[in-house]
Protein backbone atom coordinates (compact mmCIF):
# COMPACT_ATOMS: atom_id res chain seq x y z
CA UNK A 1 0.00 0.00 0.00
CA UNK A 2 2.87 2.40 0.79
CA UNK A 3 4.38 1.96 -2.68
CA UNK A 4 0.98 2.61 -4.23
CA UNK A 5 0.52 5.81 -2.22
CA UNK A 6 4.00 7.08 -3.10
CA UNK A 7 3.48 6.43 -6.81
CA UNK A 8 0.06 8.06 -6.68
CA UNK A 9 1.51 11.15 -4.99
CA UNK A 10 4.36 11.42 -7.52
CA UNK A 11 1.89 11.10 -10.41
CA UNK A 12 -0.44 13.72 -8.95
CA UNK A 13 2.42 16.18 -8.44
CA UNK A 14 3.73 15.56 -11.96
CA UNK A 15 0.31 16.24 -13.47
CA UNK A 16 -0.04 19.38 -11.36
CA UNK A 17 3.38 20.60 -12.51
CA UNK A 18 2.43 20.09 -16.17
CA UNK A 19 -0.78 22.04 -15.69
CA UNK A 20 0.97 24.85 -13.77
CA UNK A 21 3.98 25.22 -16.09
CA UNK A 22 2.26 27.62 -18.56
CA UNK A 23 1.26 29.83 -15.59
CA UNK A 24 4.80 30.49 -14.41
CA UNK A 25 5.28 33.41 -16.77
CA UNK A 26 2.18 35.17 -15.39
CA UNK A 27 2.59 34.42 -11.71
CA UNK A 28 5.16 32.23 -10.03
CA UNK A 29 3.05 32.20 -6.88
CA UNK A 30 -0.04 31.02 -8.80
CA UNK A 31 1.94 28.19 -10.36
CA UNK A 32 3.16 27.02 -6.95
CA UNK A 33 -0.39 27.16 -5.56
CA UNK A 34 -1.65 24.97 -8.44
CA UNK A 35 1.14 22.42 -7.93
CA UNK A 36 0.27 22.11 -4.22
CA UNK A 37 -3.52 22.36 -4.50
CA UNK A 38 -4.21 19.84 -7.25
CA UNK A 39 -2.94 16.73 -5.39
CA UNK A 40 -4.79 17.84 -2.26
CA UNK A 41 -8.03 18.36 -4.19
CA UNK A 42 -7.60 14.97 -5.91
CA UNK A 43 -7.19 13.27 -2.54
CA UNK A 44 -10.28 15.00 -1.15
CA UNK A 45 -12.34 14.03 -4.21
CA UNK A 46 -11.27 10.39 -3.92
CA UNK A 47 -12.20 10.40 -0.25
CA UNK A 48 -15.69 11.63 -1.17
CA UNK A 49 -16.54 9.45 -4.19
CA UNK A 50 -13.90 6.70 -4.23
CA UNK A 51 -13.26 3.69 -2.05
CA UNK A 52 -10.43 4.61 0.32
CA UNK A 53 -10.85 1.33 2.19
CA UNK A 54 -9.83 -0.41 -1.00
CA UNK A 55 -6.26 0.82 -0.40
CA UNK A 56 -6.12 -1.27 2.75
CA UNK A 57 -4.72 -4.75 1.97
CA UNK A 58 -6.97 -6.21 4.66
CA UNK A 59 -9.97 -5.11 2.64
CA UNK A 60 -8.66 -6.82 -0.49
CA UNK A 61 -8.11 -10.20 1.15
CA UNK A 62 -10.65 -12.94 0.48
CA UNK A 63 -12.91 -13.67 3.46
CA UNK A 64 -11.50 -16.50 5.56
CA UNK A 65 -14.83 -17.68 7.04
CA UNK A 66 -18.52 -17.62 6.18
CA UNK A 67 -19.09 -15.15 9.02
CA UNK A 68 -16.46 -12.84 7.49
CA UNK A 69 -18.13 -13.07 4.09
CA UNK A 70 -21.55 -12.38 5.60
CA UNK A 71 -20.23 -9.31 7.43
CA UNK A 72 -18.75 -7.90 4.23
CA UNK A 73 -21.91 -8.59 2.25
CA UNK A 74 -24.04 -6.95 4.93
CA UNK A 75 -21.83 -3.85 4.79
CA UNK A 76 -22.05 -3.75 1.00
CA UNK A 77 -25.85 -4.04 1.02
CA UNK A 78 -26.09 -1.35 3.68
CA UNK A 79 -24.11 0.89 1.35
CA UNK A 80 -26.24 -0.02 -1.68
CA UNK A 81 -29.45 -1.96 -0.88
CA UNK A 82 -30.60 -2.09 -4.52
CA UNK A 83 -28.58 -5.22 -5.32
CA UNK A 84 -31.08 -8.04 -5.76
CA UNK A 85 -28.44 -10.72 -6.33
CA UNK A 86 -26.63 -9.52 -3.23
CA UNK A 87 -29.72 -10.07 -1.10
CA UNK A 88 -30.12 -13.56 -2.55
CA UNK A 89 -26.50 -14.38 -1.70
CA UNK A 90 -27.01 -13.03 1.81
CA UNK A 91 -30.17 -15.12 2.19
CA UNK A 92 -28.28 -18.26 1.18
CA UNK A 93 -25.48 -17.42 3.60
CA UNK A 94 -27.95 -16.89 6.46
CA UNK A 95 -29.57 -20.20 5.57
CA UNK A 96 -26.20 -21.97 5.77
CA UNK A 97 -25.77 -20.48 9.24
CA UNK A 98 -29.24 -21.64 10.28
CA UNK A 99 -30.57 -18.06 10.56
CA UNK A 100 -33.84 -18.88 8.80
CA UNK A 101 -35.86 -15.79 9.76
CA UNK A 102 -33.07 -13.50 8.56
CA UNK A 103 -32.73 -15.56 5.38
CA UNK A 104 -36.46 -15.14 4.73
CA UNK A 105 -36.18 -11.36 5.14
CA UNK A 106 -33.17 -11.21 2.79
CA UNK A 107 -34.99 -13.25 0.15
CA UNK A 108 -38.01 -10.96 0.57
CA UNK A 109 -35.81 -7.96 -0.32
CA UNK A 110 -34.53 -9.79 -3.41
CA UNK A 111 -38.04 -10.79 -4.50
CA UNK A 112 -39.30 -7.22 -4.13
CA UNK A 113 -36.45 -5.91 -6.30
CA UNK A 114 -37.10 -8.49 -9.05
CA UNK A 115 -40.84 -9.27 -9.19
CA UNK A 116 -40.54 -11.00 -12.59
CA UNK A 117 -37.55 -13.18 -11.63
CA UNK A 118 -39.01 -16.63 -11.00
CA UNK A 119 -35.83 -17.76 -9.23
CA UNK A 120 -36.05 -14.92 -6.70
CA UNK A 121 -39.77 -15.54 -6.11
CA UNK A 122 -39.22 -19.28 -5.69
CA UNK A 123 -36.41 -18.82 -3.17
CA UNK A 124 -38.56 -16.42 -1.18
CA UNK A 125 -41.49 -18.85 -1.11
CA UNK A 126 -39.22 -21.68 0.04
CA UNK A 127 -37.61 -19.50 2.69
CA UNK A 128 -41.00 -18.70 4.21
CA UNK A 129 -41.57 -22.41 4.82
CA UNK A 130 -38.03 -22.88 6.14
CA UNK A 131 -38.52 -20.03 8.62
CA UNK A 132 -41.82 -21.47 9.88
CA UNK A 133 -41.43 -23.58 13.07
CA UNK A 134 -43.56 -26.33 11.48
CA UNK A 135 -41.99 -25.90 8.01
CA UNK A 136 -45.35 -25.04 6.49
CA UNK A 137 -46.00 -22.98 3.37
CA UNK A 138 -48.26 -20.10 4.41
CA UNK A 139 -50.80 -18.30 2.22
CA UNK A 140 -48.22 -15.83 0.92
CA UNK A 141 -45.81 -18.62 -0.02
CA UNK A 142 -48.59 -20.50 -1.84
CA UNK A 143 -49.53 -17.36 -3.77
CA UNK A 144 -45.87 -16.94 -4.74
CA UNK A 145 -45.67 -20.53 -6.00
CA UNK A 146 -48.84 -20.12 -8.05
CA UNK A 147 -47.48 -16.90 -9.55
CA UNK A 148 -44.19 -18.61 -10.43
CA UNK A 149 -46.14 -21.28 -12.32
CA UNK A 150 -48.06 -18.50 -14.07
CA UNK A 151 -44.80 -16.87 -15.16
CA UNK A 152 -43.18 -20.17 -16.10
CA UNK A 153 -45.37 -23.30 -16.05
CA UNK A 154 -42.29 -25.49 -16.58
CA UNK A 155 -40.83 -24.70 -13.14
CA UNK A 156 -40.51 -28.14 -11.55
CA UNK A 157 -39.51 -26.97 -8.04
CA UNK A 158 -42.50 -24.63 -7.88
CA UNK A 159 -44.81 -27.50 -8.82
CA UNK A 160 -43.17 -29.79 -6.26
CA UNK A 161 -43.46 -27.19 -3.47
CA UNK A 162 -47.06 -26.35 -4.39
CA UNK A 163 -47.97 -30.03 -4.08
CA UNK A 164 -46.31 -30.14 -0.66
CA UNK A 165 -48.27 -27.05 0.40
CA UNK A 166 -51.52 -28.66 -0.77
CA UNK A 167 -50.74 -31.82 1.17
CA UNK A 168 -50.06 -29.73 4.27
CA UNK A 169 -53.45 -28.05 3.80
CA UNK A 170 -55.24 -31.40 3.48
CA UNK A 171 -55.86 -30.95 -0.26
CA UNK A 172 -54.64 -34.43 -1.11
CA UNK A 173 -56.32 -34.91 -4.50
CA UNK A 174 -55.11 -31.48 -5.62
CA UNK A 175 -51.57 -32.32 -4.52
CA UNK A 176 -51.61 -35.56 -6.50
CA UNK A 177 -52.85 -33.74 -9.60
CA UNK A 178 -50.18 -31.05 -9.16
CA UNK A 179 -47.40 -33.63 -8.93
CA UNK A 180 -48.48 -36.01 -11.69
CA UNK A 181 -47.07 -33.96 -14.63
CA UNK A 182 -43.62 -34.19 -13.00
CA UNK A 183 -43.47 -37.95 -13.53
CA UNK A 184 -42.73 -37.49 -17.22
CA UNK A 185 -39.84 -35.07 -16.53
CA UNK A 186 -37.96 -36.91 -13.76
CA UNK A 187 -35.43 -39.70 -13.93
CA UNK A 188 -36.58 -43.25 -13.08
CA UNK A 189 -35.45 -43.20 -9.44
CA UNK A 190 -36.88 -39.76 -8.66
CA UNK A 191 -40.10 -40.57 -10.53
CA UNK A 192 -40.54 -43.77 -8.51
CA UNK A 193 -40.18 -41.84 -5.25
CA UNK A 194 -42.66 -39.19 -6.38
CA UNK A 195 -45.10 -41.86 -7.56
CA UNK A 196 -45.15 -43.22 -3.99
CA UNK A 197 -46.03 -39.75 -2.70
CA UNK A 198 -48.75 -39.34 -5.35
CA UNK A 199 -50.28 -42.70 -4.46
CA UNK A 200 -50.24 -41.76 -0.75
CA UNK A 201 -51.99 -38.49 -1.56
CA UNK A 202 -54.56 -40.27 -3.73
CA UNK A 203 -55.20 -42.84 -0.99
CA UNK A 204 -55.72 -40.01 1.53
CA UNK A 205 -58.36 -38.52 -0.77
CA UNK A 206 -60.12 -41.84 -1.43
CA UNK A 207 -58.74 -42.28 -4.95
CA UNK A 208 -57.14 -45.47 -6.28
CA UNK A 209 -53.37 -45.49 -6.88
CA UNK A 210 -51.94 -44.68 -10.28
CA UNK A 211 -51.71 -47.60 -12.72
CA UNK A 212 -48.25 -49.18 -12.83
CA UNK A 213 -45.76 -47.22 -14.90
CA UNK A 214 -45.36 -50.05 -17.42
CA UNK A 215 -49.10 -50.64 -17.79
CA UNK A 216 -49.77 -47.71 -20.13
CA UNK A 217 -50.45 -48.51 -23.78
CA UNK A 218 -50.63 -46.20 -26.80
CA UNK A 219 -54.43 -46.34 -26.63
CA UNK A 220 -54.69 -45.20 -23.01
CA UNK A 221 -51.75 -42.79 -22.92
CA UNK A 222 -52.55 -39.07 -22.39
CA UNK A 223 -51.28 -38.24 -25.88
CA UNK A 224 -53.96 -40.50 -27.37
CA UNK A 225 -56.76 -38.82 -25.38
CA UNK A 226 -59.68 -37.44 -27.32
CA UNK A 227 -58.80 -33.86 -26.34
CA UNK A 228 -55.08 -34.05 -27.04
CA UNK A 229 -54.03 -31.49 -29.65
CA UNK A 230 -51.31 -32.07 -32.21
CA UNK A 231 -49.37 -28.93 -33.09
CA UNK A 232 -46.72 -28.14 -35.70
CA UNK A 233 -44.62 -25.01 -35.09
CA UNK A 234 -42.50 -23.48 -37.85
CA UNK A 235 -40.52 -20.28 -38.41
CA UNK A 236 -41.41 -18.09 -41.38
CA UNK A 237 -38.45 -18.43 -43.84
CA UNK A 238 -38.49 -14.76 -44.84
CA UNK A 239 -38.50 -13.65 -41.21
CA UNK A 240 -35.69 -16.09 -40.34
CA UNK A 241 -33.62 -14.67 -43.22
CA UNK A 242 -34.11 -11.07 -42.06
CA UNK A 243 -33.71 -11.47 -38.31
CA UNK A 244 -30.82 -13.03 -36.44
CA UNK A 245 -32.27 -15.24 -33.72
CA UNK A 246 -30.64 -17.10 -30.85
CA UNK A 247 -31.18 -20.87 -31.32
CA UNK A 248 -31.17 -21.21 -27.50
CA UNK A 249 -34.13 -18.80 -27.11
CA UNK A 250 -37.22 -20.27 -25.43
CA UNK A 251 -40.28 -21.17 -27.51
CA UNK A 252 -43.53 -21.71 -25.62
CA UNK A 253 -46.42 -23.55 -27.27
CA UNK A 254 -49.57 -22.60 -25.41
CA UNK A 255 -53.20 -23.66 -25.25
CA UNK A 256 -55.54 -21.29 -23.40
CA UNK A 257 -59.21 -20.54 -22.89
CA UNK A 258 -60.48 -18.43 -25.82
CA UNK A 259 -61.19 -14.91 -24.59
CA UNK A 260 -60.18 -15.92 -21.07
CA UNK A 261 -57.18 -15.19 -18.85
CA UNK A 262 -53.64 -15.48 -20.28
CA UNK A 263 -52.86 -18.38 -17.93
CA UNK A 264 -52.27 -21.49 -20.12
CA UNK A 265 -54.30 -24.64 -19.68
CA UNK A 266 -51.46 -26.54 -21.37
CA UNK A 267 -47.95 -25.44 -22.30
CA UNK A 268 -44.64 -26.87 -23.47
CA UNK A 269 -41.26 -25.17 -23.56
CA UNK A 270 -38.69 -25.87 -26.29
CA UNK A 271 -35.58 -24.37 -27.85
CA UNK A 272 -35.85 -22.24 -30.97
CA UNK A 273 -33.19 -24.46 -32.54
CA UNK A 274 -35.66 -27.41 -32.43
CA UNK A 275 -37.96 -25.80 -35.03
CA UNK A 276 -39.72 -27.04 -37.11
CA UNK A 277 -41.35 -28.82 -34.20
CA UNK A 278 -44.17 -31.32 -33.90
CA UNK A 279 -45.71 -31.99 -30.48
CA UNK A 280 -48.88 -32.98 -28.66
CA UNK A 281 -50.53 -30.92 -25.92
CA UNK A 282 -52.70 -32.73 -23.36
CA UNK A 283 -53.67 -32.67 -19.68
CA UNK A 284 -50.15 -33.67 -18.59
CA UNK A 285 -48.94 -30.27 -19.87
CA UNK A 286 -51.33 -28.31 -17.64
CA UNK A 287 -49.67 -25.92 -15.17
CA UNK A 288 -52.58 -26.01 -12.72
CA UNK A 289 -54.72 -29.05 -11.88
CA UNK A 290 -57.93 -27.02 -11.54
CA UNK A 291 -58.07 -26.24 -15.27
CA UNK A 292 -57.69 -29.14 -17.68
CA UNK A 293 -57.46 -29.10 -21.46
CA UNK A 294 -59.79 -32.10 -21.66
CA UNK A 295 -62.55 -30.10 -19.95
CA UNK A 296 -62.72 -27.44 -22.67
CA UNK A 297 -65.05 -27.53 -25.70
CA UNK A 298 -62.65 -25.26 -27.63
CA UNK A 299 -59.17 -23.86 -27.19
CA UNK A 300 -56.93 -21.11 -28.56
CA UNK A 301 -53.40 -22.12 -29.59
CA UNK A 302 -50.34 -19.96 -30.14
CA UNK A 303 -46.55 -20.13 -30.07
CA UNK A 304 -44.26 -17.48 -28.59
CA UNK A 305 -40.53 -16.83 -28.80
CA UNK A 306 -39.83 -15.42 -25.36
CA UNK A 307 -37.16 -12.76 -24.92
CA UNK A 308 -37.36 -13.13 -21.12
CA UNK A 309 -37.66 -16.92 -20.92
CA UNK A 310 -41.08 -16.60 -19.23
CA UNK A 311 -44.31 -18.04 -20.62
CA UNK A 312 -46.26 -14.85 -19.86
CA UNK A 313 -46.13 -12.17 -22.58
CA UNK A 314 -43.27 -9.68 -22.34
CA UNK A 315 -42.08 -6.79 -24.49
CA UNK A 316 -39.92 -8.08 -27.34
CA UNK A 317 -41.66 -11.47 -27.65
CA UNK A 318 -42.49 -12.85 -31.11
CA UNK A 319 -45.93 -14.47 -31.21
CA UNK A 320 -47.74 -16.49 -33.85
CA UNK A 321 -51.26 -15.69 -34.94
CA UNK A 322 -53.63 -17.40 -32.43
CA UNK A 323 -55.64 -20.31 -33.86
CA UNK A 324 -59.00 -21.16 -32.31
CA UNK A 325 -60.25 -24.72 -32.67
CA UNK A 326 -63.03 -26.94 -31.36
CA UNK A 327 -62.13 -30.05 -29.37
CA UNK A 328 -61.55 -32.81 -30.16
CA UNK A 329 -59.35 -31.73 -33.08
CA UNK A 330 -58.96 -34.13 -36.02
CA UNK A 331 -56.05 -32.43 -37.79
CA UNK A 332 -52.74 -30.97 -36.54
CA UNK A 333 -52.74 -27.22 -35.92
CA UNK A 334 -50.15 -25.19 -37.86
CA UNK A 335 -48.50 -22.27 -36.01
CA UNK A 336 -46.00 -20.03 -37.81
CA UNK A 337 -43.71 -17.61 -35.99
CA UNK A 338 -42.59 -14.39 -37.62
CA UNK A 339 -45.44 -13.77 -40.05
CA UNK A 340 -46.77 -10.23 -40.41
CA UNK A 341 -49.94 -9.53 -38.42
Automatic annotation (TrEMBL):
It comes from the Bacteria. Keywords: Cytochrome c-type biogenesis, Membrane, Repeat, TPR repeat, Transmembrane, Transmembrane helix. Coiled coil: none annotated. The keyword Nucleotide-binding does not apply. Residues 204-224 are annotated as: Disordered. It holds the Pfam family TPR_CcmH_CycH. Residues 73-189 form the Cytochrome c-type biogenesis protein H TPR domain. InterPro entries: C-type_cytochrome_biogenesis, Ig_CycH, TPR-like_helical_dom_sf, TPR_CcmH_CycH, TPR_rpt. The keyword Aminoacyl-tRNA synthetase does not apply. This is Tetratricopeptide repeat protein. The lineage of its organism: Bacteria, Pseudomonadati, Pseudomonadota, Gammaproteobacteria, Lysobacterales.
Amino acid sequence: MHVFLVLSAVLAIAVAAIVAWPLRAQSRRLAIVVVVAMPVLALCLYALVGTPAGLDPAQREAPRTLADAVARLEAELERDPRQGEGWRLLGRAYREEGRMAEARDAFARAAKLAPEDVGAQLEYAESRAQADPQRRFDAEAIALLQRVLTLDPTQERARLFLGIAQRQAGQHAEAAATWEPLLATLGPEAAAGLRDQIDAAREASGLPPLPPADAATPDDSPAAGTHAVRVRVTLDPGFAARVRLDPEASVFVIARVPGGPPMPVAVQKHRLGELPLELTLDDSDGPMPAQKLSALPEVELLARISASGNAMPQAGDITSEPVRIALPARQPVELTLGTSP
